[in-house]
Amino acid sequence: DSTEANSRRGEERRRGEARMRGGGGGMMDDGGVEHAQIPNSFGHELRACLRCRLVKTYDQFRENGCENCPFLDMDKDRDNVVSCTTANFTGIISLMDPNRSWAARWLRIGRFIPGCYTLAVSEELPEEYQGMCQDNNVQYFPPKRP
Amino acid sequence: AASRSRAPAGGGGVRKRSRQDNFIDDSAIEDEDEDEEDDGGSRPRKKGGGGVRGFFDEEAQVDEDEEEEDEGEGEDDFINDAGADIPDDDAGRGSRSRHSIPMRDEEEDIDEIERQVRERYARSTHIEYGEEAADVEQQALLPSVKDPKLWMVKCAIGHERETAICLMQKFIDRTDLQIKSVVALDHLKNYIYVEAEKEAHVKEACKGLRNIYASAKITLVPIKEMADVLYVESKNVDLARDTWVRMKLGVYKGDLAKVVDVDNVRQRVTVKLIPRIDLQVLASKLEGRVVAKKKTFVPPPRFFNIDEAREMHIRVERRRDKDSGEYFEMVDGLMFKDGFLYKPVSIKSIHTQGIQPSFDELEKFKKPGDDMNGDMSSLNTLFSNRKKGHFMKGDAVIVVKGDLKNLEGWVEKVEDTTVHIRPKISDLPKTLAFNEKELCKYFKPGDHVKVVSGVQEGTTGMVVKVDGHVLIILSDTTKEHIRVFADHVVESSEITTGITRIGDYELHDLVLLDNLSFGVIIRVETEAFQASVFLRIFNGC
């Protein structure tokens, strides 16, 4: 975990991003807990990452990428956001403590950082991005089909 | 083989044995040998005395001996006991790694080991890869008494998601919030679920939130129901092109439609419908004349005819749709092609599940010349609407999909979605398994059948022709040929007298019409939502 956090911190410093109030963006707030950005609206702009099911707005993905899946480069190319996220998702779970939460374990999101996630997405991650997951040694669970 | 303890033994008195002797097969002999040598008194006995006690001592000493002897070669025995076939070279290497695993009794339950391993790794904080494999049973993740509990909390209706997100924000702002997660389900209004160790944590978290009343009820969810809370129903029918749907609202309510385009982003689809256009009203509207719309009047479905429209002085434009690249006739903002109306609608305004297109509806949708049997989409809808238990033992069936198409047989066994049949051809194996979607009930000309679902329900008759899985039946009552899907029919010797009454009227009643003609009812039919009555009309004298 610490290696991941360190690399992220390094990236943030390089980009020299200003910290948003309550936004976090994978950074540690002073004395606080590392977490993903919280969606700043509730409407149709909300999207879920197809790999980790993190929920944010389109703009938040575009600016800061996905905190659990930085290799998807959502902040580099708008096409990545469109292909790797979907507005078609069911239910929201605000995850404060992934290590101890039973719900997180059941939904297989217990390894991700605190943030807002969705219970289920309806689409699969496109093949080329699934390949990127494998290249980065990262697990991808496609949504269950009946 | 006797169970042996594996505690490392002390030194001395190691008898050199050849590796062969340590094999299981020889263990019996081994024991005997040791016994004999013990009796020789070369080892000091712990306790004196004979009889039973002496016997016990021997046992103890035998164990000791075994330990010492097996010290260097113990791993061989271990390997052999487990039945693994590992070459001697590996024994040494194997032994080093095995010291890290607590030595287990051979008789320990395999299931017990599996459960412990799963528990161990389910809780560890490893790096992401190498953790639970995708095929770890979901069962292993069921909640236990050690997990936080789930509490149901009442909140402002319509604000469930907002509440969940607010609680997330609150957690970040304050370091003392002790809840673990908050769940807002799409289909559950008025409530959210909070995961926490204690009810007090939930109360504390909800204090001061605009969407949760101070007096809000907090209810504990029983542990057995926790997994059900997170259950998400996956949609069975993927909205894809060529799927059959039914309209929920408006002029076209209840009408069958075919999906031609799906836009998931905006949650809209374009569907193809048989237009219900009142050309008169349309013409008036376009000319600017205001016509009082009759609310109850729904125009009958009819294909759109450009020439007809033009005759009514309705302007028809030929336009190219930028998304699909195809040409449409545009009238008053509506798109037509080949007589069909192409209408963009929201996904919420259509029924996607349980669509049973009647034969007539499907027929109307097809242009003449289209092959009903070859239409995979309508077949798919038909098959997906089949009720469970559709096939029964003894049913005659025919394969309609795959390499064994057209093979006939009889149902031997039905298991969920797999059907085992006994094929008609003797050269094939006794039973073959098929997915139920690949089979269709089979009838021969001459079979007497009864229609049990669909538009023609209740009719009985004799099969005169089989065309794929469409049957042509000679009705007992009307002596007409009717077309039905084989799916909707069962073999039966029942002969129905058919429907003879509708409302107040009965077959062969003499009735008077509005305009002074009268007639005799010669036939009564029920269609999906209408009843029709056929009359032989006599002109007024």
From TrEMBL, chain A:
<feature type="region of interest" description="Disordered">
    <location>
        <begin position="1"/>
        <end position="29"/>
    </location>
</feature>
<dbReference type="InterPro" id="IPR038510">
    <property type="entry name" value="Spt4_sf"/>
</dbReference>
<keyword id="KW-0539">Nucleus</keyword>
<dbReference type="InterPro" id="IPR022800">
    <property type="entry name" value="Spt4/RpoE2_Znf"/>
</dbReference>
<feature type="domain" description="Spt4/RpoE2 zinc finger">
    <location>
        <begin position="46"/>
        <end position="122"/>
    </location>
</feature>
<dbReference type="GO" id="GO:0032044">
    <property type="term" value="C:DSIF complex"/>
</dbReference>
<dbReference type="GO" id="GO:0000993">
    <property type="term" value="F:RNA polymerase II complex binding"/>
</dbReference>
<feature type="compositionally biased region" description="Basic and acidic residues">
    <location>
        <begin position="1"/>
        <end position="20"/>
    </location>
</feature>
<keyword id="KW-0804">Transcription</keyword>
<dbReference type="InterPro" id="IPR009287">
    <property type="entry name" value="Spt4"/>
</dbReference>
<dbReference type="GO" id="GO:0140673">
    <property type="term" value="P:transcription elongation-coupled chromatin remodeling"/>
</dbReference>
<dbReference type="GO" id="GO:0008270">
    <property type="term" value="F:zinc ion binding"/>
</dbReference>
<comment type="similarity">
    <text>Belongs to the SPT4 family.</text>
</comment>
<dbReference type="InterPro" id="IPR029040">
    <property type="entry name" value="RPABC4/Spt4"/>
</dbReference>
<protein>
    <recommendedName>
        <fullName>Spt4/RpoE2 zinc finger domain-containing protein</fullName>
    </recommendedName>
</protein>
<dbReference type="GO" id="GO:0006355">
    <property type="term" value="P:regulation of DNA-templated transcription"/>
</dbReference>
<dbReference type="Pfam" id="PF06093">
    <property type="entry name" value="Spt4"/>
</dbReference>
Automatic annotation (TrEMBL), chain B:
<dbReference type="InterPro" id="IPR014722">
    <property type="entry name" value="Rib_uL2_dom2"/>
</dbReference>
<dbReference type="GO" id="GO:0032044">
    <property type="term" value="C:DSIF complex"/>
</dbReference>
<feature type="domain" description="KOW">
    <location>
        <begin position="238"/>
        <end position="265"/>
    </location>
</feature>
<feature type="region of interest" description="Disordered">
    <location>
        <begin position="1"/>
        <end position="107"/>
    </location>
</feature>
<dbReference type="Pfam" id="PF11942">
    <property type="entry name" value="Spt5_N"/>
</dbReference>
<dbReference type="InterPro" id="IPR006645">
    <property type="entry name" value="NGN-like_dom"/>
</dbReference>
<dbReference type="GO" id="GO:0003729">
    <property type="term" value="F:mRNA binding"/>
</dbReference>
<feature type="compositionally biased region" description="Acidic residues">
    <location>
        <begin position="23"/>
        <end position="39"/>
    </location>
</feature>
<dbReference type="GO" id="GO:0006368">
    <property type="term" value="P:transcription elongation by RNA polymerase II"/>
</dbReference>
<dbReference type="InterPro" id="IPR039385">
    <property type="entry name" value="NGN_Euk"/>
</dbReference>
<dbReference type="GO" id="GO:0006412">
    <property type="term" value="P:translation"/>
</dbReference>
<dbReference type="InterPro" id="IPR041976">
    <property type="entry name" value="KOW_Spt5_3"/>
</dbReference>
<dbReference type="InterPro" id="IPR008991">
    <property type="entry name" value="Translation_prot_SH3-like_sf"/>
</dbReference>
<dbReference type="GO" id="GO:0032784">
    <property type="term" value="P:regulation of DNA-templated transcription elongation"/>
</dbReference>
<dbReference type="InterPro" id="IPR057936">
    <property type="entry name" value="KOWx_Spt5"/>
</dbReference>
<dbReference type="InterPro" id="IPR036735">
    <property type="entry name" value="NGN_dom_sf"/>
</dbReference>
<feature type="compositionally biased region" description="Acidic residues">
    <location>
        <begin position="57"/>
        <end position="79"/>
    </location>
</feature>
<keyword id="KW-0539">Nucleus</keyword>
<dbReference type="InterPro" id="IPR041975">
    <property type="entry name" value="KOW_Spt5_2"/>
</dbReference>
<feature type="domain" description="KOW">
    <location>
        <begin position="442"/>
        <end position="469"/>
    </location>
</feature>
<feature type="domain" description="NusG-like N-terminal">
    <location>
        <begin position="147"/>
        <end position="233"/>
    </location>
</feature>
<protein>
    <recommendedName>
        <fullName>Transcription elongation factor SPT5</fullName>
    </recommendedName>
</protein>
